[in-house]
């Protein structure tokens, strides 16, 4: 494989400095301060102009300086040491390899699909939280040694850069990105020719994409790019922008990411000898078409029918959804999907795969729509949300797909998101725990914070706040210049914010549910909080609105107008251009991180975790991750008016709760000082946050949960399905069709509950349930007959149930014993479920027959 960029770099890099090329192109530098320091030392000034991007730096530095460094023994030995360190990092045994020795059947490789990746601002390929999470996932996988191959698209204009018009309206810019200027290499074959992925498009056209590879530590990230002269002009633009364009554009991108992405992973593994993945992780429904390409592969290579391939594909697929509301789900018109997949005419996107069956996978209530989340669930045996609360929301939201089951039984679990510690915590904090090399060590060393004094911790917090204040002033000035102000009228920006004032941050994308403007609900109240003479507060706000969301832009404008007011502008700012580089200053420097979404619409939220890693205290609605991680000592929970349906009233109630918390609890605690100026009680919350939340919010914790709870069982299931010429897949498919055919006739004919002794049974007594069941040709081995007992409400609904398996008795009926779990009104029922050793959950096939 040839490094496209290396040509440029090599031309300028004297031989002794060759290793700099490697260090600059492997993105591990983004979380490795010693490597950053090495580049900074080449030219601190240029380092600042290129915003800390090593590759750009090498392009900027003058040849004489490089010649000089090539003779500088000290610099050369540092470079060698870092090069050796990187090599060691890339090859040594890490956590995954050790676990593999213990467990033996971890997957040889995992493929990870996502429409966006936020690894670094030097590779702007993300819009917000979803992408940054994917980036953190890759970094943690790298640190842990997880053999992951990631795949997505390379957007020629990334998302967009944000600036403000004079009247505070969001303005979008789409800078064109030259992949050759990015830390990417083109994937080429043995002859040096670019590897192209091909995907069939309607009207006999072929879409081609080349593959750019980024190296995220140990993890290869493959990005598909359609901007090729060989492509028809319309098709060339498919990878132009992230989340831009119409439905057609979007489905083309998703077809490319899923189907083309799968082909890219195959090509990459073949060329490089990387093991082929056994497990396929779909990060959000957008990339879900990958499962269809795998169905095509198996149909073609193994001669399996659709149902058999589906069983095999499901076993190895993990689907993570981040959406808590139906409105957030990607849906397409059925005729559009048919258009792209082919409908029996000349065009066939996936030869051998029936478009009718594809459409059934995405079916939903509306027969005209194709639902990507439903397809994701049907193509994956394991599905999860991204916090415990979100898992509950999802089980409720998708329960329609499992009729007859209670929400708790819906087979969707949760893995709470995490963030990559070495990326997001400030050096000063990292240093406290020793320079942690990996997220894993980082997590464990955070526990060592106890002997560090309050005074030292406070000093660090003050340094970080000061750094943020300087950055706020710099960016505010730039923003005003951009809005058309003259240098002469901007002196005031030099004194906005105060390094000693309690600093609150609020930064996120601006969909309505995040309620950017909740803080403005009562502008006078906010003004008085900001301007309090004894206990002032300063508020830094940032966020991007989707370009098509005029409502979101109006919210931004409201904040900007409020913050423009000369009376308060030294205490509140809106900073345009929210991205990873701005985010870092905010997470480092804010004392309090504010989050006030409309509960429960925040699937997880991760910015508060990043603040916590730096000793920031969260002030948040109990939504997403905070609902399970808040403990009363690591921050404050804003009470919510759940159930109040009038949104204005709800905002009023929650805003006033927020103001009250700020004035009665947060501010007094921050300004309560010892003689030496240290806020002791505040610092005990900071310490508690660092020591207890620090390890739990790590992406390394999240990735270990994915590995042990999802990837490992998926690899096992997939292995069972494919062994012996796909015997398992054939069996499951045969079982499924037999059961589905018989199911309409399966009945619980009658049932009875009996107990010994007393006329009213006692709590804890054992009762016997008997029932006669019509199995319609299925055998006792095919089904599970269960007694279900629980509390019964006025509508006859059962709650808090316990279940007991029933067995066939001599007289042909089924019988089981249950210990009564509750006192009071109790009910029972009997149900029949399909049973097969290769199903993971009783509800997996969505089939159940209930008594009555
Ligand atoms: C972490 C992060 C996000 C996500 O934050 P949420 O709390 O999930 O809204 C968005 N953008 C950037 C740049 C981030 O670093």
Automatic annotation (TrEMBL):
<keyword id="KW-0808">Transferase</keyword>
<dbReference type="InterPro" id="IPR011834">
    <property type="entry name" value="Agluc_phsphrylas"/>
</dbReference>
<dbReference type="Pfam" id="PF00343">
    <property type="entry name" value="Phosphorylase"/>
</dbReference>
<dbReference type="InterPro" id="IPR024517">
    <property type="entry name" value="Glycogen_phosphorylase_DUF3417"/>
</dbReference>
<keyword id="KW-0119">Carbohydrate metabolism</keyword>
<dbReference type="Pfam" id="PF11897">
    <property type="entry name" value="DUF3417"/>
</dbReference>
<protein>
    <recommendedName>
        <fullName>glycogen phosphorylase</fullName>
        <ecNumber>2.4.1.1</ecNumber>
    </recommendedName>
</protein>
<comment type="similarity">
    <text>Belongs to the glycogen phosphorylase family.</text>
</comment>
<keyword id="KW-0021">Allosteric enzyme</keyword>
<keyword id="KW-0328">Glycosyltransferase</keyword>
<feature type="domain" description="DUF3417">
    <location>
        <begin position="13"/>
        <end position="123"/>
    </location>
</feature>
<comment type="function">
    <text>Phosphorylase is an important allosteric enzyme in carbohydrate metabolism. Enzymes from different sources differ in their regulatory mechanisms and in their natural substrates. However, all known phosphorylases share catalytic and structural properties.</text>
</comment>
<dbReference type="InterPro" id="IPR000811">
    <property type="entry name" value="Glyco_trans_35"/>
</dbReference>
<dbReference type="InterPro" id="IPR052182">
    <property type="entry name" value="Glycogen/Maltodextrin_Phosph"/>
</dbReference>
<keyword id="KW-0663">Pyridoxal phosphate</keyword>
<dbReference type="InterPro" id="IPR035090">
    <property type="entry name" value="Pyridoxal_P_attach_site"/>
</dbReference>
